[in-house]
Design goal:
Number of domains: 2
Distance between the termini: 46 Å
Number of helices: 12
Bound molecules: 2'-O-acetyl adenosine-5-diphosphoribose
Oligomer: single chain
């Protein structure tokens, strides 16, 4: 009883400290991973039992070699995942991040997720580090990188077998996501580095922090002297150097945190009025 009371007091203290850092911030970089979408019903990658890479071999499904070897298997697996995200809705964690835009002047979301749920929630500045499952492109990028193709229209118009064929070159169409062994979109990565260096606070939600180069961004922010806050129910590759750790699911921790930021902003505003009057 006493220890659970102490625990909840500690959680409250950490939330207050995080809220106070966010209330002072002019610029916030939010780095997200699969955990932020878990409460929308999208599986993560590395969690025991339920993680995609625990059940499936990424070498057979998420590399250019795998696609060359068995394009239908890879395309169909991504179609299955695409169906999951198309049917999913943003959760309270995604929505809380949108609310933060009313409280912090500049907010950029740097996401490793390919589900488009931050945009669906209403986040206005989202940098997609690993692409987006809802888009497709020519495997050969025959008209430049990326040669985007509307695969849904192609499939329904011509009832092609999967994967569909590129209307320009006749080669295969693939999902517009980053596979193992591929480089990240250059513009997205350089924006992410810049945001990590220039923000006042980096908030990291739901990533194991093991896949580079995205996993290096928290260390960039920390190295530049920024406050690093992590939200995750489990320890991650970031936990050891985060300034504040808010342990728990994003869908619960983030709305609570945003509420506290709102209160902290009000308190600051009242104090500022008093000191000028
Ligand atoms: P992981 O599956 O590696 O990690 C998911 C993280 O989310 C873990 O640290 C969990 O503890 C945490 N988590 C679980 N439930 C949560 C919740 N409700 N709220 C907040 N956090 C929660 O996923 P990522 O770190 O995103 O890349 O994986 C990084 C990359 O590896 C992915 O973008 C993907 C994958 O291979 C590509 O496909 C290129």
């Amino acid at each position: 009883m006493l220890s659970s009371l102490r625990h909840s007091r500690a959680v409250n203290d950490l939330t207050e400290q995080a809220a106070s850092a966010l209330a002072r911030a002019r610029s916030l970089a939010v780095l997200t991973g699969a955990g932020v979408s878990k409460e929308s019903g999208i599986p993560t990658f590395r969690e025991a039992q339920t993680g995609l890479w625990v059940q499936y071999d990424p070498q057979e499904l998420a590399t250019p070699q795998a696609f060359r070897h068995n394009p239908k298997l890879v395309w169909d697996w991504y179609e299955y995942r695409r169906q999951l995200v198309v049917e999913a809705n943003p959760n309270s964690g995604h929505l809380a991040l949108v609310e933060l835009e009313q409280l912090v002047p500049r907010v950029v979301v740097l996401t490793q997720n390919v589900d488009g749920l931050h945009q669906a929630a209403g986040s206005s500045d989202v940098v997609e580090l690993h692409g987006n499952l809802r888009r497709s492109k020519c495997f050969a990028n025959c008209r430049g990188d990326p040669t985007l193709i509307d695969a849904t229209a192609l499939l329904s118009e011509s009832r092609q077998a999967s994967p569909p064929r590129c209307p320009h070159c006749g080669g295969y169409v693939r999902p517009d996501v980053v596979w193992f062994g591929e480089t990240l979109p250059e513009a997205a990565l350089s924006r992410a580095y810049q945001a990590s260096e220039e923000c006042d606070v980096m908030l990291i939600v739901g990533t194991s922090g093991v896949v580079h180069p995205a996993a290096a961004l928290p260390a960039v922010a920390k190295g530049a002297g920024k406050t690093v806050i992590e939200v995750n129910p489990e320890p991650s590759g970031i936990t050891s150097f985060a300034d504040l750790i808010l342990q728990g699911p994003g869908g619960e921790v983030l709305p609570r945190l945003v509420e506290r930021v709102r209160q902290a902003k009000c308190t600051r505003a009242v104090a500022a009025t008093r000191s000028t009057s």
